[in-house]
Amino acid sequence: MSDGRQVAAGSSRDRALDALLAVAVRLRAADSLAPATAEPALRAVAEAAAGVIRVTAASVALLDAATGRLVFRAAAGPEGVGVVGLSIAAHEGIAGYVYSTGQALAIGDVAADPRFERATAERTGYMPRSLLAVPLVDAVGIVGVMEFLDRRDGAPFDLSDLEVATRMAAATTAVARASRVDRDAGELLRTVLAALADGEDGPLDDAAVEVLIGEVAQRLTADDPLWRLADRIGRLRTADPDDVDLAVAWLDALLARADRRSATGRRRRA
């Protein structure tokens, strides 16, 4: 490779890193403005489903768009706690099969099924005998998988269990979709990376990266003030220190005003 081509390749790589950094800053700002609140609701749905179907454990795994892995975000039952935080490839294991195919699956002898990820089960501290898994799916697509382990009466899962699990999965899907930041983050990353990969005019310069990020944020969030604010905060990373101080002072004034309004509202309700 000639020196010119090496410089171009390095420049393209640097532009890609700059774009990803710009995205990461906005995602971090958005996450700070609206921390993930889906887990308590997901856990509540899992607990309700586990009680109705009467299983020893239930869990919810959602796709992480950034890594392409299914991450267990919530669980119910004393035997399910250990799975929270673990992740598997979206095509591996029984959960990966259900996610990839969109088909529910009931297995009477988990240990004998070649799709069973024994290593993952061992990390949770619980080895199930039977399992029921249903996709979390709606008109938009599949967002994850809900699993149920071992009926407490020792009986195999039946069609009635599948019907209840499917209904609970619909509620769980709605909760997962409500995690707005997670969903928009994945779309934002895909859009930026696609633009970098398909560019016909060579590598993007710094100004073009910022314009692209701003345009993507505007397209995704025209009706979402949360993301508009996150985008503005993200831009501050390249601002003059005096401008940053001014922005901090303005935000302090805004927060003080919000606190006064909140206090007034509490007095009125009292």
Gross geometry: elongated
CATH topology of the largest domain: Beta-Lactamase
Strand content: 15-25%
Span of the ends, CA to CA: 74 Å
In which order are the strands of the major sheet placed? 3-2-1-6-5-4
Number of helices: 9
Low-confidence stretches: none
Q: In a nutshell, what does this entry contain?
A:
This protein has 270 residues and is α+β, with helices and mostly antiparallel strands.
Secondary-structure map with pairings?
Elements: H1 3-33, H2 38-53, E1 55-64, E2 69-76, E3 87-89, H3 93-101, E4 105-107, H4 118-124, E5 131-137, E6 142-151, H5 159-177, H6 180-198, H7 206-220, H8 225-235, H9 241-269
Antiparallel strand pairs: 1-2, 1-6, 2-3, 4-5, 5-6
Helix pairs in contact: 1-6, 1-7, 1-8, 2-5, 6-7, 7-8
Describe the 3D structure.
With about 270 residues, the protein is of the alpha+beta class. It has 3 domains: about 5-35 and about 180-240, no CATH class; about 40-180, 2-Layer Sandwich (Beta-Lactamase); about 240-270. It is built from 9 helices and 6 strands. It has a 6-stranded antiparallel beta sheet with strand order 3-2-1-6-5-4. β1 and β2 (about 70-75) form a beta hairpin. α1 (about 5-35) runs parallel beside α7 and α7 (about 205-220) packs antiparallel against α8 (about 225-235). The radius of gyration is 23 Å and the shape is elongated. It starts with a helix and ends with a helix.
Q: Main attributes?
A:
270 residues, Beta-Lactamase, 6 strands, alpha+beta, 3 domains
